[in-house]
Amino acid sequence: MAPRKNAYGRRVYGSYEVNLLFRVRYLLQEARYTVDGASRRLWQETARVDPELRAQLAEIRDDLLAALVASRSVQRALEERAGNGSGDIPGAAEGAGGGTGTGRTIL
Predict the structure, then answer these.
(1) In this predicted model, which residue has the larger pLDDT, 76 or 92?
(2) What is the pLDDT of residue 13?
(3) CB 76 within 8 A of CB 83
(4) What is the rounded average pLDDT for all residues in the chain?
(5) Using an 8 Å Cβ cutoff, are 97 and 103 in contact?
């Protein structure tokens, strides 16, 4: 499980993660599964997903991965332009102060 983190670096658990943790707790403490047995049981439970839904999820995953690759490509191109001293990036000509005139960087 890899929960996302908020702006302060704290882990943020969604309802899926919380339910999964409760399910693991139940399997380990109440049903007396071993860690390995609980892991196998959870995989079996998730394998029961409707094949059509699984195909839709795979398609969504592929679309998201393609979008991630494209966004990283754009990010690299922008970083290369900024490294070349090009003035094409908005705000680049304003200097380190962000145009405030105070010499402080505003994030």
Answers:
(1) 76
(2) 87
(3) no
(4) 80
(5) yes
* Chain mean position to CA 27: 28
- The Cα-based distances of 61 to 4, 47, 54, 56, 57 in angstroms read 17, 17, 10, 9, 6
Cβ proximity of 67 and 74 under 8 Å: no
pLDDT tens, position by position, 91-107: 544 444 444 444 454 44
Of residues 82 and 88, which shows the higher confidence score?
82
Whether residue 3 contacts residue 11, with contact meaning beta carbons closer than 8 Å, is answered with yes
Amino acid occupying residue 76: R
**H-run or E-run covering 52:** helix 51-83
The pTM of the whole model exceeds 0.85: no
At 73 the three-state DSSP class reads: helix
Q: Is the dihedral of CA 60, 62, 66, 72 positive or negative?
A: positive
Question: How many beta carbons lie within 10 A of that of residue 87, not counting itself?
Answer: 8
Calpha distance 19→7 (Å, rounded): 24
